[in-house]
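Morning F.,

Quick status update on the modeling queue. The single chain you submitted on Monday has been processed. Sequence for confirmation:
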Amino acid sequence: MAIQLNDTLSRSRKTLVPSDGETYRFYCCGPTVYGPAHIGNFRTFVVQDVLRRVIETDFLAHADPSKDPIKVIHVRNITDVDDKTIRTSQQLGETLKAFTTKWTEKFHADCDALNCLAPDVEPRATEHIEQQVKLVEDLLAGGFAYVGGDGSIYFKVCACEHYGELSHLDRDQLQTQGENSAGEANDADEYDRESVSDFALWKAHKPEDGDNKWTGPKNPATGETIDGRPGWHLECSAMSTAYLGDSFDLHGGGVDLCFPHHENEIAQSESANGKRPFCHHWFHSAHLMVEGKKMSKSLGNLYTLDDLAEKGHTPMEVRYVLINGHYRSQLNFTFNGLQAAASAMAKLEKAVKPILELVDMTQSEFRDLCSKPTALTTTGMFVRAWECLCDDLNVPGALGEIFSSIGDLNDPSFEKSAITGQLFSLAGLMYCLGLELYATPEAPKADIPELIQQLAAQRWEAKQSKDWATADALRAEIQNAGWVVLDSKDGYELEPV
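Structure tokens below.
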């Protein structure tokens, strides 16, 4: 079953296939590194991570045995120069590089904690100034850009006939467009412009920028270079083109980036290279609410992983909550939801544990299986979960199917080989979801004293005879000796307190 995913541009579901038949090229807008990323940021990155894992699994499942599977190239940028990074580093008296490197490393640590795969390429904006300058000069030469009264260079939106198609804007409204597609004020640009819909490509240096400037494009009128820095929208066009070509397969980001950021990417990229489409498929994830309220500094609910760790919640619980809502629907992040995630993970681990013992597989071996893609089949008890993932990345549906089916693995009529095969499928789904079971190493089983075993056996006989008083008394005696009885439908287990 091929993956069907909603495309923002066409407003329809499209099959994910590589346009060149060989390599699937996937670009995601990365973080602006001026502080720790919060859970709203990470909803987008975690959803993109699940999509990448599903794509890799799908291509592996459909691979021609005589050929290598289709390769996925995932590029995610680091925005290490913009208004916020410069302003904050200047306030702290730090160099821009030292400041942004610190927060880039923190972002990587948080991604690792959330079990997000590292991108194949992670370009930084400051390391691709040359490519950005070249793009601006091409736009100036083509009549798509101009030098404004403040010395900065702007894109001329009226020269791009397709502008507004991604976010479905009415072109007659562009002159007064004041909001992005998330309904938020678009006030990132504070420079003078010929039109309020035009946007900065290259910003002329200002005293408050300090030493943060680069040799920029040449002013066509004077022949002199304009020292300054790239505009925010420019970097993604330059870097995606550098690593994925003038036209690639999939572009992802949060819905707040649809307009103006992605709209501007399309305009400047297609105008510069004369090729359409800039991207074949657009993938946007919805916003995160916290306890029913919009995330904001004033409400103090811009939670980071560290904030949640201080409250006793693990990164895997956070990941579970962030994926357990359809990516195109607004997700309400709650602390009750975190508790439910912890319970769900524990339920999965408890359900899988006896099955692993039955097939002589350790928790560590199963964990290793979950860390790599598996060619999932179109048969078996978990096929409906896989179908959900292929159906517009329906993660909640997939989780529901997993919980509905996992109990069937205990069917005594199953042969050992059949159970092992289903475990491989379950591990493949865990890989797709990026959920790590048994993150805490299993403690070695303690030797159960013979007396405790005898008391437990007597208690079980009393329970079967419905002698509840004797059963309760024996349970208390066992517990006082440092052991706990865990009953199940067909028996019991003993564990040290």
